[in-house]
Specification:
0% strand; mainly alpha; 91 residues
Length: 91
Amino acid sequence: MDSILPDWKPKGFNKCKLIWQMRMLFVDLHPKLYLFRGAIKKILGFPWESDFRTSENWKIKSKDMKELKKNKKSLKELYSAWSNQIKSRMA
């Protein structure tokens, strides 16, 4: 993408990208952690509903990431084809 649009990234993009990649490393662990945290809060009498909702959201994200990993090769091929088409039209 850098070869097509080199100036599209804002200043803090690389830092945000790194943070996002680190979060996605543990995408399968997040639903369990929020579920556990919500259970502890419920036992202690603190508001717990948001942790259970967050756990459900992370379950969806985990499922999406697994699907993305399955389709990674075809997505790379598609991107490569688009990149070649754009390059040929710009020349």
